[in-house]
Design goal:
The chain contains 3 helices and 5 strands; from the N terminus they run H-H-E-H-E-E-E-E. With 154 residues, the chain is of the alpha+beta class. It is globular, with a radius of gyration of 15 Å. It starts with 14 loop residues before the first helix and ends in a 15-residue tail after the last strand.
Length: 154
């Protein structure tokens, strides 16, 4: 993935907001870097153990807590690899001890080439660190997706 200023194109009120946005985007990009090498530990580190929910394009219901992610981690660990991927237009909207990261992800993987709209809701927890409390990955224009190539991994 190419290195560039992550927060370009969006105006933050203060330098502190801009630095927080850079930090949150870096957390997500670090998790993605591992994810696309078959390593689920990046998301295991940034997803809240205290309060977490998840909507995924291939799940029929919301997953209600971090513990429910164990099955997904098991299915993906060591199996998913990206030939290439790109994070486009990341934007962080900041509130008091909460922030919403939205971006588009374009990934060419060993399983399926897929384009996502991603929403990550971060919250500053008691330990002073930022964690994702809700994650949604939805397919961009799902009516145009060909799922016939989807393998039995996920």
């Amino acid at each position: 993935m190419e290195t560039k200023e992550r927060t370009s194109g969006w105006q933050y009120k203060t330098e502190e907001e801009k630095q927080l946005a850079e930090h949150i985007i870096a957390l997500e990009e670090g998790a993605l870097e591992k994810w696309f090498k078959g390593d689920t530990s990046g998301y295991a580190q940034i997803w809240s153990k205290r309060t977490f929910t998840y909507f995924d394009a291939v799940e029929t219901k919301r997953l209600e807590d971090f513990a429910s992610m164990a099955d997904l981690f098991q299915r993906v660990e060591g199996k998913l690899n990206a030939k290439s991927y790109e994070v486009r237009s990341p934007r962080v909207q900041i509130g008091i001890d909460m922030a919403v990261l939205t971006y588009q992800l374009f990934a060419k993987t060993n399983i399926l080439d897929i384009d996502y709209n991603c929403i990550e809701v971060f919250q500053k927890e008691e330990d002073g660190n930022w964690y994702v409390i809700h994650s949604t990955w939805s397919i961009i224009r799902p009516m145009e997706m060909d799922f016939s190539k989807l393998k039995d991994i996920v």
